[in-house]
Design brief:
The complex is a heterodimer. By secondary structure, chain A is α/β, with parallel strands linked by helices. Helices cover about 35% and strands about 20% of the residues of chain A. In chain B, strands 5-4-1-3-2-13-6 form a 7-stranded mixed sheet, with helices on both faces. A 7-stranded mixed sheet of chain B has the order 8-7-9-10-12-11-18, sandwiched between helices. In chain B, strands 15-17-16-19-20 form a 5-stranded mixed sheet, sandwiched between helices. The mean pLDDT of chain B is about 95. By secondary structure, chain B is α/β, with parallel strands linked by helices. The chains are: A alpha/beta, B alpha/beta.
Chain lengths: ~280, ~550
């Protein structure tokens, strides 16, 4: 099983997108080989950014859409066909600047979609402006004297938006990313995975993250407790926790709004006679 | 017999619900009914009224002059009293103490229209038992209190020995009495719509409410999203996955949907978009009617892509146009707009809607014999075979970026040209197909004077041209524009009168530029109120003279 397409990958050598692409590819190939997922039932959605080209490189159904709108589009796909495993790729600008509200609303609805955040804290495709996750003081092309804004913490926002699965990985730790992605696929409901990644051209953070990331799995950490997850992400220290930060189970949005089996009778048109009589 | 009843009060006094009940009574009593709802954009304190027009003739709009006026407050009456016909009977709260009647049965202010129904039943001598049956049917468990109020209204006028007439039962078979938005919803359902997504905005919200209320019976999902942008993206996602989807909004919402309309054009995923126009620009007057989004829907979305814009002229057409919109969206794989307005969408009429017509989904499907599925396969008509995720051995890549036939991103110059030209061929295909379909309606008498219009003015125009030597050409498809059909109809016409509800003359400008004909008289109205039959009639008489 090889999910790669014949497209030439157009990211800079050393780009963090490779780690995400390869880790997910390995996991999906394994799932397909094991028969736990069918190739035709996987659908990918990506927004705008360097990472957005990722859908070109997987031999899977895909919708490369516009900036910020991945969550509602993915929700629509899942709503229409619950058999599909819908994985959305989003960028830090994509999902937390222009598409911020969609991301929050998808989380609080517990839409059964998976979102993978490529967080490199810089707009790479538009050549190096600051994003909502860039640190204060970050010198970018649009903030030559330093970023005047404070960064947001995407995973924390997702926790506070009632996301039922929140995890964080580092693009240079492939094994750990593969573990997180497999757990993400097992989750029924809204799953959010923030992947810390360097942009080798505009914000090379390899060393920065290597020195700071640690795995909650190595500690005695209870991922079922929302409060401890929030506390962990609010902690004011140099260390950056990765791993599965929180997970719980709730009824999904699709289960609540999509009526039983309606999608199986796509072409069936209900008889309007009875309802029409009520108008007389 | 053609009478108009005014029921005016404050918001919260059940005017809209009550006018529907009164309309139902006349519908079942064998008459044609048209209901106009005039209301302000506030929950309390404004003055609202409904006009229930009843006739044994064919009627198509409100009349805006009244035979009976019921007003729960003097200020409402004062505001509209100049619209009385000669011999108009008026019942205002100085004459009838509506509040004390409500108190006497421990009722609620929103039940006041039931008193009016009682008074009307006396004034027109409609059989009491007949009306009570309608109330029971319509209000179900809420009927008893309303029947008490109905009887109170009836007895007050009876005791006063108020002057009355004897209205005979009409000869029509009762027909469904529904709002334009109901008809749009039913049209979608009839055409196989499964997902409706929206964000509340007047005057489209009642469409969401109607579909949400009946979702189970219609076997659909009708949902409210965080904004219009989310609504159209969700609907587009569902369509990509194979499910016919629609969004509804008003002009301000179309502005927000613009980027996704362009996306739909690029990715060639079907989507039906309802624009229920209201007064603009910006927030304008949200509960009043206008036709000023024509240029918007013809142009919204950046770049160049095929689109179809259809404007129903009445409630029957609202049903049919919506059903067809789905067929076109899915056959041509491109955005289709339904351009309605407040006057169609929030007015009610008893109409014979062709519910038995079928609108089967038309889709150019993929030939399984081919080796690889190409979402954007180049061909002569510009319409590539459609396939969906979950189909075995098929991978569907759709891409907002300019793409190859397989759907992979590519900005290679040759590729840019071939995909642009594919979409141009699709535009050409739509234009040629539309020439074969009937997208204009022609009414009236052969004449060298012709009225041209689109959308909701249809009703007032139809009534205004009666007995006059005037031809009326109604345009339903604004894109593609039925140039040839119009030129054919206009060939012996010397004077063209255009009618539209905006200040730019958007439709007149398009007609002139597309046909090369010049318009003799442009009738533009932009006070938020629909055209009056009698005002239009005076204008027409002036021109034919």
């Amino acid at each position: 099983m090889n999910l790669a397409t014949d497209r030439k990958i157009q990211w800079c050598p050393g780009c963090g997108n490779f780690g995400i692409y390869n880790a997910l590819k390995t996991v999906l190939e394994k799932e397909i080989e094991n028969g736990t997922l069918k190739q035709e039932d996987i659908t990918l959605v990506s927004g705008i950014g360097c990472y957005g080209y990722i859908t070109n490189y997987y031999h899977l159904n895909s919708f490369h859409t516009i900036h910020g709108r991945v969550p509602p589009l993915a929700t629509g796909i899942k709503l229409a066909n619950p058999n599909l495993t819908v994985i959305g790729f989003v960028g830090d600008g994509d999902a937390f600047a222009e598409g911020m509200s969609h991301t929050i609303h998808a989380a609080r609805r517990n839409t059964d979609i998976k979102l993978i955040l490529h967080n490199n804290a810089v707009y790479g495709l538009t050549t190096g402006q600051f994003t909502p996750t860039s640190p204060h003081g970050f010198k970018s092309r649009s903030t030559p004297f330093g970023n005047p804004e404070n960064p947001i913490n995407p995973s924390l926002i997702m926790l506070l938006s009632n996301a039922t699965f929140v995890a964080r990985g580092f693009s240079a730790d492939l094994k750990h990313l593969q573990y997180i992605f497999s757990e993400m696929l097992k989750h029924r409901g809204f799953a959010f995975v923030e992947v810390l990644q360097p942009c080798v051209t505009f914000n090379n953070t390899y060393q920065f993250y290597k020195e700071r990331v640690y795995k909650v799995e190595d500690l005695n950490y209870d991922s079922s407790n929302l409060k401890s997850a929030v506390d962990l992400l609010m902690k004011d220290d140099e260390k950056i926790p990765t791993g599965i930060l929180f997970r719980t189970n709730l009824e999904t949005y699709e289960e609540q709004v999509a009526l039983e089996n309606y999608y199986l009778n796509r072409n069936e048109v209900p008889d309007l006679t009875e309802i029409i009589n009520e108008f007389i | 017999m053609d009478l108009s009843i005014f029921i005016g009060g404050q918001a919260g006094e059940g005017i809209k619900r009550g006018s529907m009940l009164i309309g139902k009574v006349f519908n079942r009593f064998g008459y044609n009914v048209f209901i106009l709802n005039d209301y302000g954009s506030i929950i309390r304190g404004g003055t609202d009224y409904s006009e229930v027009r009843v006739s044994n003739e064919e009627i198509y709009t409100s009349y805006n002059k009244f035979d009976y006026m019921f007003a729960f407050h003097m200020d409402v009456f004062e505001k509209y009293k100049d619209k009385q016909k000669e011999n108009c009977s008026t019942f205002t709260d100085d004459k009838i103490n509506f509040d004390s009647i409500i108190r006497s049965v421990d009722g609620q202010p929103f039940m006041k229209p039931s008193i009016v129904l009682g008074m009307l039943t006396y004034l027109l001598q409609i059989p009491v038992d007949f009306v009570i049956d309608v109330i029971k049917d319509d209000l179900k468990e809420h009927a008893p209190k309303n029947i008490e109020l109905f009887m109170a209204g009836y007895n007050i006028l009876k005791d006063k020995n108020e002057q009355h007439i004897h209205l005979l039962k009409g000869t029509n078979t009762p027909k469904p009495l529904l709002y334009g938005n109901d008809a749009i919803g039913l049209g979608g359902v009839k055409a196989g719509m499964k997902v409706y997504a929206a964000y509340p905005i007047t005057p489209s919200s009642t469409l969401l409410e109607f579909l949400a209320k009946n979702a189970k019976r219609f076997n659909i999902t009708a949902i409210q999203l965080e904004d219009e942008i989310a609504a159209i993206n969700l609907a587009l996602g569902s369509a990509y996955a194979g499910v016919p989807s629609m969004v509804g909004t008003s002009g301000a919402g179309i502005d927000l949907m613009g980027e996704t309309i362009s996306l739909a054009g690029a990715v060639e995923v079907p989507i039906v978009i309802v624009d229920v126009e209201r007064v603009g620009p910006s927030t304008g007057a949200p509960t009043y009617t206008e036709q000023s989004d024509l240029n918007l829907v013809l142009n919204v979305g950046h770049g160049e892509f095929p689109r179809i814009v259809l404007a129903p002229g009445d409630i029957v057409e609202a049903f049919e146009v919506t059903a067809k919109a789905f067929q076109f969206a899915w056959w041509y794989q491109t955005p289709v707009f339904i351009l309605s307005d407040k006057h169609i969408s929030e007015s009610a009429q008893n109409v014979l809607i062709p519910f038995s017509n079928n609108y089967p989904p038309l889709i150019k499907t993929f030939d399984q014999e081919e080796q690889h599925y190409k979402r954007y396969k180049l061909n002569e008509d510009g319409i590539s075979p459609l396939a969906f995720p979950s189909m075995k051995d098929i991978i569907v890549h759709v891409n907002s970026s300019e793409h190859t036939e397989e759907g992979y991103s590519s900005s290679d110059p040759k590729n840019l040209i071939s995909m642009k030209e594919k979409r141009l061929r699709k535009i050409k295909t739509i234009e040629e197909d539309f020439k074969l379909m009937k997208f204009i309606n022609v009414f009236g008498k052969e004449s060298d004077v012709a009225v041209v219009s689109f959308g909701s003015p249809k009703g007032a125009i139809l009534e205004a041209i009666k007995d006059l030597y005037i031809k009326f050409i109604q345009v339903i498809s604004l894109e593609p524009f039925p140039k040839e059909a119009l030129l054919n109809e206009l060939k012996d016409v010397k004077k063209i009168i255009s009618i539209e509800q905006n200040s730019f003359g958007q439709f007149a400008n398009i007609l002139e530029s597309k046909t090369g004909k010049s318009i003799y008289k442009r009738v533009l109205k932009y006070d938020g109120r629909p055209f009056n039959v009698w005002e239009l009639r005076n204008i027409f008489k002036e021109v034919v003279k």
